[in-house]
Design brief:
The chain contains nine helices and eight strands. With 245 residues, the chain is α+β, with helices and mostly antiparallel strands. The protein folds into two domains: 68 residues, Arc Repressor Mutant, subunit A, CATH 1.10.10.10; 169 residues, GAF domain (Beta-Lactamase, 2-Layer Sandwich). The strands form two sheets. Strands 5-4-3-8-7-6 form a six-stranded antiparallel beta sheet, with helices on both faces.
Length: 245
């Protein structure tokens, strides 16, 4: 079961392009016949589909159906949107809500504030490797050390698309986030933008989401960061309370 979940997460991390058998077998440390049997079983159950032209595996219709069912019971965006709206109004800047999805952070809410200059925005629905955005960094740095290293190894080949970000820089940012108690980063997810983020934990203590505030580099200086942080902490506590009801 754990192998199947890992495989599904790897395929999700490569959406919408899909993943090749050879790449998945290497990343999971499996022999190709073993990886093939695993992918075949997931495909037969409808959890994966294989593209006939390029042989890549993508998420299948059963996962979509399960996701629709789960949405009715646990719609994180709807539950948290009033908190995100209040945070954007209080700070004047753009608030974001990110959900962890395997090795990625997916933007599920973006609420603009009233400040005349808003940031170039990460679009709702976009996914980036954990650690790239402030939300992703908040999630990554909140993981146990071993899990954090697994994620970093898995996303290493994708970091080149985000400026000067590499595994050494990512470890440095995580270490700083652990010391500070919050994630602060800029110029990676969106050039010219800085953001601060905090993780949201489920009832078992696992980081499942993150809430952030983003502004232009000129606006998000050290003084402003310290002004925003108490508002962000209040918002994170409120989201946690709502999720645990």
């Amino acid at each position: 079961m754990s192998r199947a979940i890992r495989a599904l997460r790897m395929v999700a991390a490569q959406a919408p392009h899909g993943v090749r058998l050879v790449d998945l077998s290497q990343q999971m440390g499996l022999e190709r016949p073993t990886a093939h049997r695993l992918l075949k079983a997931l495909t037969q159950e409808g959890m994966l589909v294989q593209n006939a032209s390029n042989r890549r595996y993508s998420l299948g219709p059963l996962l979509f159906e399960l996701g629709i069912s789960a949405t009715h019971q646990f719609n994180l965006k709807d539950i948290c949107q009033p908190v995100c709206t209040a945070l954007a109004e209080q700070t004047g800047d753009t608030s974001f809500l990110f959900l962890r999805s395997g090795y990625d952070a997916v933007c599920i809410s973006r609420t603009q504030g009233t400040y005349p200059i808003q940031t170039p925005s990460v679009p709702v629905g976009s996914r980036q490797p954990l650690g790239v955005s402030a939300g992703g960094l908040a999630l990554l740095s909140a993981l146990p050390e071993m899990d954090m290293e697994i994620v970093i190894s898995a996303v290493e080949h994708r970091l080149g698309a985000y400026g000067d970000l590499d595994v050494d820089k990512l470890r440095e940012l995580c270490a700083q986030a652990k010391v500070n108690g919050y994630a602060f980063t800029g110029n990676h997810a969106v050039p010219g933008v800085r953001a601060v983020g905090l993780p949201i934990f489920d009832m078992s203590g696992s980081p499942i989401a993150a809430i952030t505030v983003a502004a232009t580099q000129a606006r998000m200086n050290e003084r402003r960061l310290l002004t925003i942080l108490p508002m962000l902490e209040t918002a994170a506590r409120e989201v946690t309370r709502l999720l645990h009801q």
